[in-house]
Amino acid sequence: MSQTLQSVEKEFLNYVKKMTHMNEAIGLMYWDLRTGAPKKGVSQRSEVIGTLSADVFAMSTSDEMKKYIEELSVSSVYDSLSEVTKKTLDEVKKDYDRNTKIPADEFKEYVILQSKAESIWEEARAKSDFAMFQPYLEKLVEFNKRFIGYWGYEGNKYNTLLDMYEPGVTVEILDETFAKLRDRIVPLLQKVTEAGKPETAFLFEAFPKEKQKEFSLHVLKEMGYDFESGRLDETVHPFAIGLNTGDVRVTTRYVEKDFRTAIFGTIHEGGHALYEQNLSEALVGTPLSTGTSMGIHESQSLFWENFVGRHQGFWNHHYASLKQYAGSQFDNVDLESFYKAINVVEPSLIRIEADEMTYPLHVIVRYEIEKGLFNDEIEVKDLPRIWNEKMQGYLGVKPENDSEGVLQDVHWSGGSFGYFPSYALGYIYAAQLKEALIRDLPDFDQLVEKGDLKPVQEWLSKNIHQYGKMKKPMEILQDVTGEGLNPDYLIRYFEEKYSSLYQLN
Amino acid sequence: MSQTLQSVEKEFLNYVKKMTHMNEAIGLMYWDLRTGAPKKGVSQRSEVIGTLSADVFAMSTSDEMKKYIEELSVSSVYDSLSEVTKKTLDEVKKDYDRNTKIPADEFKEYVILQSKAESIWEEARAKSDFAMFQPYLEKLVEFNKRFIGYWGYEGNKYNTLLDMYEPGVTVEILDETFAKLRDRIVPLLQKVTEAGKPETAFLFEAFPKEKQKEFSLHVLKEMGYDFESGRLDETVHPFAIGLNTGDVRVTTRYVEKDFRTAIFGTIHEGGHALYEQNLSEALVGTPLSTGTSMGIHESQSLFWENFVGRHQGFWNHHYASLKQYAGSQFDNVDLESFYKAINVVEPSLIRIEADEMTYPLHVIVRYEIEKGLFNDEIEVKDLPRIWNEKMQGYLGVKPENDSEGVLQDVHWSGGSFGYFPSYALGYIYAAQLKEALIRDLPDFDQLVEKGDLKPVQEWLSKNIHQYGKMKKPMEILQDVTGEGLNPDYLIRYFEEKYSSLYQLN
């Protein structure tokens, strides 16, 4: 590579690094707003976030960025770049194309619509009044259809939206995968429901918040979460956030009369955090220094939450300790009853409160609706009816009103279509990855039972975390498991676990 | 004003607002680093702060800024600007001139020297080895002399440095003021020392940190600190920081065996915070939205710490409550003994541990040395000797080594010359402002005794806080007190308080 090009590559990387720095500052402000920023400073802080975000957006679509992309994309030049620069270029190019193809006026109008729609949605949900939200949702869908027109699509219009969150995943793949999953969960759920619900009342007694926190910290430590690279704080809607690999923060919520929120929530967010703490140092300062997709990220949180946190061995190991933290709550509850209670399966209306088996069905309902909307097979005005029919069909429950039905999630009000499938993909990935992990660590069950989780974390870091966005989700999956997306492992997990728990045979 | 000029004014204010937004983000990162940011993320976070700071610096010296300054400074244009725009322009022009007059290469060299010098100073202080630090200090002084050459000066070279922290204050004023203060404190201190030291041992018992925090929160609330616009956190070197008027955070430090650190420290920082919480809304988004100078800021913290927090009436009101928070620590200590103990006066070596009466002498030592350095009357190599002589002369104590002498403060290692006088000015201002306050609130003593501090806070906000940088320090002083800098009120405060406390007559 010539001297000039070397210096262009260097300038480009510096330019991109500056964007990651701005994003880190934005990330800290976001974390702060959600963990105790004083109320009266919020509106001013939101303006500051707006200023910095506008700057990053401007940088991502600037003439300077265009010049870098053009110069470095010439194939003889591209071939001579380092792997990290190549992937970085691919990332920023994707953003550049997406952001510049929409006419500026239209994008501005859309941003205003998004923020209006979100506040209207809040009100509509509170009043359970879909009609109020309907015209906004119609416009949001309309805008996204037009954007797909600008962006182009392959095979199915909805693919373009899916690609934003889960590159490589298409309607063709999801139709087959989700149909299979749905068709196997629905009858299993039927059987489980008929088998009767285990005792759960003892879960809902007072468990001091301070003690929930101590137990959460203990578990995070055991998972391999590095407290010199993170901290645990309280919030309303828990999340994990990677500011840089040395500063990955977990948040949780303590509900006094339901310890599950904090414990399983912390394990879940801890799973996300391990991903961000164990990214390769070589990616620092590039947009590659984060999880490769929403779905793979979710596979990590769900792996820990369900395959570790809801594992029988985990509680063989921790139950005595939990009892101590809890005081007298579980004095008359044996381990088996406890284990059954925290794995109760029960069809319900609200996605974020669903158990692990019914959860994918909630997601599939949304997938089918979104796909229908973008293929002109479903109209927005019919959503409440269609929603309720699908819930009845797959889960056997029917919302009494739209606030516990079609209005329950914030996503659509912000124009996020194509995001929901990632949640179910995370489950499917997690089960596939677990299968591969067990090939390398055949004593996985024993490790969990001993609380020796370090080898598990290390395996995940080595096979998934370190790569960040250097590998696409499907590449990760193929490299680690030797196959593509396959729901069979998740189905088998459900069938084996719940057949045994509910003695179905 | 023409349409074009109106739009230039608007663009200029937007440009400046963006700088304040960047500074707010930097401020939050600074706060976070000092209140619990994970250790391993610090070096990366420092780079982010560096990136944003460089951006703000670039904006403050850009061609765009130059154009605004030139266009808006034309006198016919300037006269038509709003008062806020005028003062904003004055501020940014001062920065622009200061930052652009130094050749870029020289400034870069200086920045590198600063950071080296600071780490060398740390090591030198630890080893008590002035010779190690001397060449760096010499270079720092040399650079600043050259800068004064670029910047120009009036009357005395040191005035240019003073002006950075306390505009309007000159060597002429300080020579007279500090000499008077020194010549009255020194003999008073002599008498106090001869009168014998009150009992203080009971101060140094264990006072649970959690309880210190509760008492601190209680006092902050009483002072009128708005917790919806702020929060109290723990740190190593306490500070207050105004991110915006709705987000002004206080930090403190809890020393189990010396409750005074947290209590008086919190009141002190709370005084700074009240200033920042009560700035006029009209100044938001401009560089005027902060305290007008280091000295006036310090006058607010010292007013609260000493004239309220060390007031007899304050403890008449709070002592019973403090005893409850403390457990049994003060069971056998009557109010009078307690009051005497927290007002103990004792010459000592370390400035930041000094009592209110000896504190100004520590500052005067530094002032005289700095003035001598910049007028070529003192050489860096002679500093340890001169320092020790002055300490002996004014305070009657002599450092055993340079780490408790000339090496004790960080300021010089960062090239901050001209800063120290602000600390003593804060005391003098505070006493003058108190005199004016009592003219409007003649029942000040009773208000403190009743814990009815709202009128005090409101008076300070109305007369000082709201103006931010709209008024210069000397303007504030003149408008509020009707006179210029005058140390008599502080001297009288010391003489009356300590004559009575130590029964000197």
Give a structural overview.
- Chain A is mostly helical and 505 residues long.
- Among the domains of chain A are: 3-101; 203-338 and 423-501, Neurolysin, domain 3 (Orthogonal Bundle), CATH 1.10.1370.30.
- Helix content of chain A is 65%, strand content 3%.
- Chain A has 21 helices and 3 strands.
- Chain A has helices spanning 3-33, 42-60, 63-73, 75-80, 83-101, 104-127, 130-151, 157-165, 171-194, 209-223, 259-277, 294-308, 312-326, 335-342, 359-374, 383-395, 421-440, 444-450, 454-463, 473-481, 488-501, and strands at 232-234, 240-244, 247-252.
- In chain A, strands 1-3-2 form a 3-stranded mixed β-sheet.
- In chain A, a hairpin with a 2-residue loop joins β2 (240-244) and β3.
- The longest helix of chain A has 31 residues, at 3-33.
- The radius of gyration of chain A is 23 Å and the shape is globular.
- Chain A starts with a helix and ends with a helix.
- The model of chain A has no long low-confidence stretch (mean pLDDT 96).
- Chains A, B: GO terms for molecular function: metallocarboxypeptidase activity; zinc ion binding.
- Chains A, B: Its cofactor is Zn(2+).
- Chains A, B: Belongs to the peptidase M32 family.
- Chains A, B: It catalyses: Release of a C-terminal amino acid with broad specificity, except for -Pro.
- Chains A, B: Keywords: Carboxypeptidase, Hydrolase, Metal-binding, Metalloprotease, Protease, Zinc.
